[in-house]
């Protein structure tokens, strides 16, 4: 298990790109660990090019990925990147989540009515659909270009990025979809389009985003919950009673230890959404 401590800071939640990568050249990482850190690295401002793009590429190089191809849609302020590890043909698509300072991102999250997902089937969150469609051409071109060399395709993302990854998973037949702090994306008819995909959905303790949008009007989750306890341990088969008790204890502990400190998030339900608090449990 990684020795990264729990991070209750506002910076971890609002600016996850500030922290240096946790990857090291000496360690080996499984798919879910790679995805957790890729989802956090997606917040780096690589769309600016220069030093920020170099930062991303240097982090990826530590785990054998030779380069990164950014996808950016300035109109919707949506972003992602693709990278291939030629040593084993592993290709990863990672998408950026909601940036609190981006009014466009917030507008996307709030556009929560269900709309037809004509690209496959069912109905999905209208804002998430718009975000995915804005990146569709660039992602499609990358998939076509990498098809001859890739042997395995993994999709991932955190928050809004997880939702975008889920939508693309209904279109491009990945080997796996790993979502980090994902909201609900669509209805049961849409989720059925992912029946051919191995979906792993991680929920960090009290993370409130994983309970949004509420399960009304047809919204359901894609994939069973893989619960992370208040101590950062995986409990993939946790039942409802265990989760309720663990969350209650987590909130009480948070009030005593963190909520009152300057620079910390006031409630655990938000602090648990910080990408690093997923990384600490999944990177080993």
Describe the structure.
The chain is an alpha/beta fold. The protein has one domain (10-282): Rossmann fold (3-Layer(aba) Sandwich). The chain is built from 10 helices and 10 strands. Helix 2 packs antiparallel against helix 10 (276-282) and helix 5 (126-146) crosses helix 6. It starts with 9 loop residues before the first helix and ends with a helix.
Topology:
Blueprint: H1 10-14, H2 31-41, H3 50-61, E1 69-73, E2 78-85, E3 90-95, H4 103-110, E4 114-116, E5 123-125, H5 126-146, E6 152-158, H6 160-172, E7 176-180, H7 188-192, E8 198-204, E9 225-228, E10 234-235, H8 240-257, H9 268-271, H10 276-282
User: How would the global form be characterised?
Assistant: globular
CATH topology: Rossmann fold
Poorly predicted residue ranges = none
End-to-end span in angstroms? 5 Å
The helix content is 25-40%
Task: Return the CATH class.
Answer: Alpha Beta
Question: DSSP strand (E) fraction?
Answer: 15-25%
Number of domains: 1
Essential attributes:
284 residues; alpha/beta; Rossmann fold; 8-stranded mixed sheet; two-stranded antiparallel sheet; 10 helices; 10 strands; globular
In summary, what is this structure?
With about 280 residues, the protein is α/β, with parallel strands linked by helices.
């Amino acid at each position: 298990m990684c020795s990264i401590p729990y991070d209750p800071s506002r910076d971890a939640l609002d600016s996850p790109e500030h922290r240096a990568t946790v990857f090291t050249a000496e360690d080996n990482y499984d798919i879910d660990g790679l995805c957790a850190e890729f989802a956090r690295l997606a917040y780096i401002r690589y769309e600016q090019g220069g030093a920020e793009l170099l930062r991303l590429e240097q982090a990826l190089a530590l785990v054998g990925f030779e380069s990164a191809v950014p996808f950016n849609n300035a109109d919707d302020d949506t972003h992602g990147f693709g990278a291939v590890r030629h040593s084993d043909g592993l290709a990863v698509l990672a998408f950026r989540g909601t940036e609190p300072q981006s009014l466009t991102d917030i507008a996307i999250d709030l556009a929560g009515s269900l709309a037809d997902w004509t690209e496959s089937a069912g109905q999905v969150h209208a804002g998430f659909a718009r975000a995915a469609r804005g990146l569709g051409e660039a992602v499609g071109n990358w998939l076509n270009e990498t098809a001859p060399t890739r042997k395995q395709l993994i999709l991932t993302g955190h928050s809004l990025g997880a939702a975008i990854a889920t939508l693309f998973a209904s279109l491009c037949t990945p080997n796996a979809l790993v979502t980090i702090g994902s909201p609900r994306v669509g209805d049961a008819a849409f989720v059925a389009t992912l029946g051919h995909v191995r979906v792993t959905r991680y929920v960090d303790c009290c993370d409130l985003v994983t309970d949004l949008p509420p399960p009304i009007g047809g919204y359901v989750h894609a994939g069973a919950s893989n619960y992370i306890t208040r101590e950062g341990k995986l409990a993939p088969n946790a039942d409802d009673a265990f989760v309720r008790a663990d969350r209650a204890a987590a909130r009480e502990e948070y009030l005593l230890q963190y909520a009152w400190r300057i620079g910390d998030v006031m409630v655990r339900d938000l602090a648990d959404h910080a990408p690093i608090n997923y990384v600490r449990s999944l990177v080993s």
